[in-house]
C-alpha cells in the first residue's frame, strides 16, 4: 500500500511546517483553522493527510470533539505516512481521553505500542499513562511513565526501570 507522501505538492510540506510554526501568531483560532483548511484543500478529495491536518487544527485550538472525526477518517484510509499515522493514533487517543473515553484510548495506545517502535514511543507511553489514570489504573500509569522516563535519566536508569516493573508485578 502506498501512502500520500509521493503525491503531495512539491512545497506543501514546507508550507505546512511554516503554518504550524506560526500557530501562536494567528491570535484567532478560527483564522488558523481556516488557513489549515485552505492548505488541506490543495490535496485530493478524500486525502488522509488533509483529514489528519484538519484534525490537528481542531485539536490544537481546543476542539477535540471535532478532531476525532478527522483522525478516524484519516486512519481508516490506510494512506497516512508512517509518522503521521502514529501521530494520528496518539492524538486520537488523547482526544478520546479528553472527551471521557479513556478505555478506548488505552486500547488504541496499547495496540500502538505492540505494533512497532520509533522515536514517538515515549509520546505513546505518556499519552497511555494519562489514559490509564482515566480508567483507575494509576499504578500502571506510573509504571508506564517511569518506563518512558528511565532511559533519559543521567543516572538510576536500571533502578527506575526495575521500580516501574515492580509497580505492576
Distance between the termini: 40 Å
Number of helices: 9
Helicity, as a percent range: 55-70%
Shape estimate: elongated
Please supply descriptive tags for the structure shown above.
0% strand, mainly alpha, 169 residues
Reconstruct the topology from this structure.
Blueprint: H1 12-21, H2 29-40, H3 48-60, H4 64-77, H5 82-98, H6 102-115, H7 121-134, H8 138-149, H9 157-168
Helix pairs in contact: 1-2, 2-3, 3-4, 3-5, 4-5, 5-6, 5-7, 6-7, 7-8, 8-9
Please provide a written account of the structure:
The protein has helices at residues 12-21, 29-40, 48-60, 64-77, 82-98, 102-115, 121-134, 138-149, 157-168. By secondary structure, the protein is an all-alpha fold. Helix 3 (48-60) packs antiparallel against helix 4, helix 4 (64-77) packs antiparallel against helix 5 (82-98) and helix 7 (121-134) packs antiparallel against helix 8 (138-149). The protein is elongated and about 50 Å long. It starts with 11 loop residues before the first helix and ends with a helix.
